[in-house]
Specification:
The structure is a homodimer. Chain A is an alpha/beta fold. The first copy, chain A, has helices spanning about 5-10, 60-70, 70-75, 80-95, 110-120, 135-145, 170-175, 195-210, 265-280, 285-290, 300-325, 350-360, 385-400, and strands spanning about 40-45, 105-110, 130-135, 150-155, 165, 180-185, 215, 245, 260-265, 335, 360, 365, 375-380. Chain A folds into two domains: about 5-55 and about 300-400, Alpha-Beta Complex (Aspartate Aminotransferase, domain 1); about 60-295, 3-Layer(aba) Sandwich (Aspartate Aminotransferase, domain 2), CATH 3.40.640. Chain A is built from 13 helices and 13 strands. The interface between A and B is large, with 71 and 71 residues.
Chain lengths: ~400, ~400
């Protein structure tokens, strides 16, 4: 049995994105080489909603919700019925399979909330959970928190793109070995890899065959770059018995400050998630839920333009990293880059803190995404285009200053 | 070991406040006696924020937060530093003991969020938790969810007021018997009982003596009626080694639609709560946190007036209930009434559903607050004054229609 102390040790947030302000810098003086590097501070730990502001009309939608009063303040725990109705239609269309607004959809406090509830509804002490590495840092933490056992599945992302993807042999082995749940993100966070149609179909079939519950986090599926294809697992012909799909407007649409997400799929899992939500925080903030009325009905051309602008940043940053010899996979979707650093004379965590202190650049260490990724860093490049390029140049400069 | 099925059975929300819309009414036709009763529908399951609207300036504060952009969208998981600074000052003054904004305070998604994080930070499989009965329904559910064992402590609330309060002998027995945690609300939800200075001091001393962590939910401590005294446990001379106080602006201030709460106290518990918050939903919605700037600095006279208006409703409803012979304790604070029903010819859950279906009155069954309270109902009387009186008259009429 895990003690509370162990449990919370596994939940360390010292290197988690957004918490950098709480890190101490006092001990850096002894290791710092040279002077501070000039430049506009860039925080790559998350997207910059000043550079890419929230969907037009989202604040107005909040105010409309506020003016609705009691009806909007106290919604069902799974979210306001009419808002769910509209969402179910639009998400059903986007993902290629109808959704029942009444039984198959829950509105959550962010996609983080959706992941928490989904894993809380499926993982207890001893539950075996297949987890992709690297993948979103909270997946592993959540499995541990609920007492589950992690079966790690490698994701290949640095090689020839046709050979990239999850190791499906390892996945089948894990399923044979008694995995009850499989959780993964596509587009993958932190690499931007989009699972191919063939992998998605095979995952869906294997999960059906071995009766594994699948939780697929598609948070970034709308930010899809030129020529790429996205496959929705919930639209596959062969379906897992239990499946939850998670999406939300925090990233591409920059609504993170509203804390809104959704999960949709198997109704008895949605029921459980709602019961858990009732003791976690009752509901996603009532007035905020109104902002979901802007989701998947943004002004014409707005989304295309947003994707286009991110693609331009991706291309430029990739060029800078690759020119400097950094192995960096090309993201097919989303706004993350996951470059591999050259060998350094300081450990990764010290380098990350030096970057912030000396070069005004905040990034997230790769170990947040896979225990072995201590040679990689994650950048959310949803930033001011010019400032991001200069900040990446400072990262490269810093690897030279601290080279082995 | 609890299975997931057991775990979620304990989290049933069918009778939870706010979920009544999901109840089936089909089977009521066979038990319903007579016709529907005319009247304005009243939902006593929660306060009516149309009758008592949110604090003046709260929506404006949200919009100010939104306009601040990135800084306010992505706060530390424990909440935006400047907002915490102001809160720590004001909450420290209110509760009679200074609070460190940096280490002793966390902003949460509602006080529900604060309770979830506080119990998550202190209760694991086998932890013994002393729980008052009756008390806020989620307390028991949370303890069960985290795998703890409940040691029930009776609250006396129907007798002579000087003899009312928690059974302190039973509490000491529980502490002797190995209780690790004690969670309770004062003012008590659902009875409105305020723990006396003597009980609070004794609880604090006993907790110190037996090294029990105390979690005290003071959600309703600002809505204190004429002549009543509120005692803050965190201001007692003898202090428990570990103590968390929970408060929020969802009730008296009607900000429930913002989902905001706070917990403050022992810093290593606050640390744990933040780590847990990081995987639960990251943070209370960033823009919403700005509304906390209106908290404890409402316009002059506003709070006094709000309390006064509630006191007038309390007095009138008490009169109506007592005139009809219902045993009903007089709430010293908060907006809950917990009357005992006369013997009925139908079970409590059927009566509750009939009330809603036939009399347009929504209330919460007493069993949500204590397993044995199947003869009581809870009303949140933060409602339109006149409509509330008429609705209580319909409740009384219904007990006559369905009398044994």
């Amino acid at each position: 049995m895990m003690t509370l102390e162990d449990k919370f040790k596994a939940l360390e947030t010292e290197n988690a994105p957004g918490q950098e302000g709480r890190q101490s810098v006092e001990d850096l003086d002894t290791v710092m080489r040279g002077d501070k590097l000039d430049g506009v501070p860039v925080d790559f730990s998350h997207g910059d909603v000043d550079a890419f502001p929230p969907t037009p009309g989202s604040a107005e939608a909040w105010n409309t919700g506020f003016e609705k009063g009691a009806k909007q303040a106290y919604t069902e725990y799974r979210g306001e019925a009419q808002i769910r109705e509209g969402l179910a239609n639009r998400l059903g269309r986007f993902t290629g399979r109808a959704i029942s607004a009444d039984t198959e959809l829950i509105i959550t406090p962010g996609t983080q909330g959706a992941l928490f509830l989904a894993l809380g509804a499926t993982v207890a002490s001893g539950t075996k959970v297949a987890v992709i590495e690297p993948d979103y840092f909270a997946n592993r933490k959540l499995v541990k928190f609920f007492g589950g056992d992690i079966l790690p599945i490698p994701l290949h992302y640095q090689g020839v793109s046709s050979e990239n993807g999850p190791d499906l042999n390892r996945l089948e082995e894990a399923f044979k070995g008694g995995a009850n749940v499989f959780v993964f993100s596509t587009p993958n966070n932190p690499t931007g890899l989009v699972y191919s149609p063939a992998s998605i179909e095979q995952i869906s079939s294997l999960a059906e065959q071995y009766n594994v519950t699948v939780i697929v986090d598609q948070l970034y599926s709308r930010m899809l770059y030129s020529g790429e294809v996205f496959t929705h697992l919930r639209a596959c012909e062969t379906q897992p018995v239990k499946l939850l799909t998670i999406m939300g407007p925090s990233k591409t649409e920059s609504l993170s400050g509203f804390r809104l997400g959704t999960a949709f799929g198997t109704s008895d899992l949605v029921d459980r998630m709602e019961r858990l939500q009732a003791i976690v925080s009752l509901r996603a903030a009532g007035y905020n839920q109104s902002a979901l009325d802007t989701w998947f009905q943004e002004p014409s051309g707005w989304m295309e333009n947003r994707v286009h602008e991110h693609e331009a940043i991706r291309d430029d940053l990739l060029k800078v990293f690759r020119k400097a010899g950094f192995i960096t996979a090309k993201p097919q979707a989303g706004s993350y880059l996951f470059p591999k650093l050259p060998p350094l004379g300081v450990d990764l965590y010290t380098f990350v803190r030096l970057l912030r202190h000396q070069a005004a650049v905040t990034i997230t260490p790769g170990t947040e995404f896979a225990p072995g990724s201590n040679d990689s860093i994650r950048l959310n490049f949803s930033q001011d285009h010019a400032a991001a390029i200069e900040a990446v140049k400072r990262i490269i400069k810093m690897t030279e200053i601290y080279s082995k």
